């Protein structure tokens, strides 16, 4: 009787098998995928010009679905054939007559760009500095560690505010968007420096790194072929969590008037513009706030799921 050996599982199949067991990961991936699809299809589904698409006759109109119990609104939404358009402004309109649902939809595109761009920049710069600091140590580690400690002495949102406040007063909306990305990424860099440094310090004591050194491998080869590939797991998990943090910080900057400037439909800016109308038109704040809530929740759950799958110390 001959024994049969099962072929080893591919890393991707093993990953998906473990990911399917993570309830937070599955819920988070559905939420994130939903918002990503909306963000990518927003220009196609609802072409939008924030400087033109407004109707003052429909300003502060309640959500159209409220016509189910609002007879006055139902009369306004009834056409010549007697049909009621319950989807005309499903999230209502703001003080300028702009459709809140359309602005929330296009705000997801902007949040997607800011979240991913800021996180990618912070991950690349912070991880590079952390790898250099942890691998070479001594003076290099002291200098990078000193700058990192100074940046970590401030809460990330205060650091982002300090960077964003440098911008000139009459900045264009496009420049303000890029400045928001820079401010958020700068605030996130120290996290990746500390994380990459701690991972590299532990890797330096592993046998395969010591063997590469004994065989005369150059530091550049060791870093790019051995150190960085084996440091990706915690950085990927942190990156998924940082996208949520970056979006939240960008919304906070927009709310304070230091982020994306009008007329761009950024969620934090939309909430800030609605502060004077929250009594008469609370929907102008509720729906952008719910968008931020679900976006951040989705990436946090996805990050928890990835940590459960990619962390070899977790039990499954």
TrEMBL record:
Keywords: Cell membrane, Membrane, Transmembrane, Transmembrane helix, Transport. The chain crosses the membrane at residues 27-45, 114-136, 143-166, 178-196, 235-261, 281-303. Pfam families: BPD_transp_1 (PF00528), OppC_N (PF12911). It is found in: Cell membrane. The keyword Transmembrane helix applies. It is a multi-pass membrane protein. Residues 108-303 form the ABC transmembrane type-1 domain. The keyword GTP-binding does not apply. Belongs to the binding-protein-dependent transport system permease family. PANTHER family: D,D-DIPEPTIDE TRANSPORT SYSTEM PERMEASE PROTEIN DDPC-RELATED, OLIGOPEPTIDE TRANSPORT SYSTEM PERMEASE PROTEIN APPC. This is Peptide ABC transporter permease. It comes from Deinococcus roseus. The lineage of its organism: Bacteria, Thermotogati, Deinococcota, Deinococci, Deinococcales.
